[in-house]
Amino acid sequence: MSQEELAERASLSARAISDLERGVKRTPRRDTVQLLVEALELSGDARTAFVTAAREPAARRTPKQAGRLQVAVEGAPMHPHSSIPPAAIQTTPAPPPAGGFLGAVPEGSLIGREAEFSAILAGIEAVIQGSGQLLVVVGEPGVGKTRISQEATLACRDRGFVVATGRCYEPHQSVPYYPFLEALSSLYGAAPDPVRAQVPTRWPHLMRLLPDQPSGALPATGASPQEEQQRLFWAVTGFLQAISETAPVALLLDDLHWADDASLELLQHLARHTRAHRVLLLGTYRDVEVGRQHRLGSALRDLERERLVERIPVRRLGHEGTVRLIADRMGQDLSDEFTELVYRHTDGHPLFVQEVLRTLIERGDVYRRDGHWESREIADIGVPESVRATIADRASRLSERAQGALREASVLGQAFDFEDLQAIAGLSEDELEAALEEALAAGLVYESGDRYVFNHALTQQALYAELSKRRRSRLHLAAGKRLNGWRSPSGGDGRRSWRGTSGREAPPGGRFATPSSPVTTPRRCTPPRMPRGTTGRRWNWRGRSTTGTARRASSRSSAGLCG
Predict the structure, then answer these.
(1) Strand 451-454's sheet: what is its strand order?
(2) Which residues pair with 453 in a beta bridge?
(3) I want to staple 550 with a disulfide (CB 3.0 to 4.6 A). Which of 65, 533, 544, 546 is the partner?
């Protein structure tokens, strides 16, 4: 049956049939699919398979699903990336693999990123209209930068872009143009034949960045290394501009904080010279890895001054977003008590949420019964091994002194005072300041008022778990002595409780919590403190003297005080 015959039978246009077959429509209307099912007189397994394949975007279809559609709709061969004329495509590209890396088809839905994705879609639409864009997606490790970039990749493919991706890796930071080697090879393979045929003569320097193609020896010109680099930059730019005359181009680069200097210079050059072309440049990077002296930070500041880049920050999910993520990954809604426990433990960090769910399933705390997930009463979640490894990797970049200071700080809970840590760590003021500055730069702690707070409860717990039992006991003993031996500068009885709102004596060690009984401190919230030089007076959390309400305030958690 031809496309025209099927269109007439289903009361649809021939173009609608072609768009469905080629995957131009990312999510076809259900009534359209139903009309086709009835026109093809499908039933049983064949009906189910057809509906599943028809509702799947072309970029996500397996070869088997693509075959089912082609068998059901006999007509012209399918080309999933239809913006390139069929004559320019040698073979039908294989669908991308599924996975968690840029260039792969994502697993699961994109949750809680409506605002961020809308900003990306606006950039994509601007490119389609002829205005080149550079977007950078920024956030902490595991927060979902790559995931939202995967969604951007699908959106570009659905709109007929020629898409190429490249990734940076820490071990390859010294390899010039490393992410472009992968991306440009992909672009070269997807380029229309006429453009590809011009590469050796029109952009011969580009061949240096195509590892799968014989580059040959370029004629000696006597040019300096800087001049040769500029010729390479202009060759890459011209190649992208030429492809963009046929179809919009999307070049996506992951983990730019590990990019080599040459790659960053090339990215800047492309951003400056593709503004009038249909070229989308999108990169991701970890903000905690990029300080003011980092080469990427400097490059982005230059581009921001020229208004050539848009940053899209990705932050942790709120409570509602975490609940939706749990429901999506589990395939059903779970109890409020369970989702609250997971949110409280993970603070909405998407990677941690998924790893905690996986751990709870492996432990049997969450299990299936009659086709539904149920959970046992969970007293303690603990730190999943994958999360522990991630945190350990980040901490390992610090000096031994800084790592040791953080482990000892973990005994004090998620939030701690400089003086308390110095008392148990045995470091001088200068040594401890240097250690904490390292931790601040790495994003493992942040400052809240005059206190330090671990960036995540799981970070504190993972570091605490690295301490030996003997060392934990010694540190808890030192912490207890510090607590019960504290005196105010005025000589009064200034011993204080953990919350610092009462002059009463605290039990030994009561102020310093372990992960099994944590004292939680909300992010960006200063816990109550007792002003120095006071004796038996009651103080509220803002440091003002109180009367009748002080006793109630002193028993409240900082979460309650901060609303």
Answers:
(1) 415-416, 451-454, 445-448
(2) 415, 446
(3) 546
Phi, psi of 5 (to 5 degrees): -65, -45
pLDDT at 490: 42
Cα of 494 vs its chain's centroid, Å: 46
Whether 114-213+226-313 and 386-561 share one fold: the answer is: no
Burial class of 437 by CB neighbour count within 10 A (0 to 12, 13 to 18, 19+): exposed
**Cα–Cα distance measured from residue 441 to residue 246, given in angstroms and rounded to the nearest whole number:** 45
Q: What is the pLDDT of residues 406-455, one digit of tens each?
A: 999 999 888 899 988 988 888 999 999 999 999 998 888 989 888 899 98
Residue 190 pLDDT? 92
- Contact between 44 and 122 under an 8 Å Cβ cutoff? The reply is no
What's the one-letter identity of residue 273? Answer: H
CATH architecture of 114-213+226-313: 3-Layer(aba) Sandwich (3.40)
Q: What is the pTM of this model?
A: 0.64
Do 280 and 123 form a contact (C-beta atoms < 8 A)?
yes
Three-state DSSP state, 391: helix
Give the residue-averaged pLDDT of 49-65. 56
178 CB-side CA count, 13 A:
17
Half-sphere exposure (Cβ direction) of 385: Cα atoms closer than 13 Å = 3
- Length of the chain, in residues: 563
* DSSP secondary structure string for all residues of 276-324: TSSEEEEEEEEGGG--TTSHHHHHHHHHHHTT--EEEE-----HHHHHH
Ranges of each domain in the chain? 3-82, 114-213+226-313, 319-381, 386-561
Q: Residue 199 carries which DSSP code?
A: H
What number is the average pLDDT over the span 293-304?
Answer: 94
Q: Which DSSP letter does residue 213 get?
A: S
- 67-90 mean pLDDT: 42
Question: What pLDDT is attached to residue 147?
Answer: 95
How many other C-beta atoms are found inside a 10 Å radius of the C-beta of residue 360? 22
Measure the CA–CA gap between 512 and 436, rounded to whole angstroms: 19
* Mean of pLDDT over the chain: 77
CATH of domain 386-561: 1.10.10.10
What's the pLDDT tens digit per position in 475-532? 888 888 776 665 444 444 433 333 333 333 333 333 444 444 443 433 333 333 433 3
Most confident of 62-66, 159-163, 369-373: 159-163
Q: Calculate what percentage of the chain has a pLDDT beyond 90.
A: 41
- CA of residue 390 relative to chain centroid, distance: 13
HSE-up (13 A, CA, CB side) for residue 475: 25
Cβ pair 103, 96 in contact under 8 A: yes
Task: Report d(CA 408, CA 455) in Å as an integer.
Answer: 16
What is the tens place of the pLDDT at every residue in 128-148? 999 999 999 999 999 999 999
Distance CA 25, CA 154 (A): 12
In the block, which residue shows the tokens 């149920």? Answer: 374
User: Is the CA virtual torsion 336, 342, 348, 350 positive or negative?
Assistant: negative
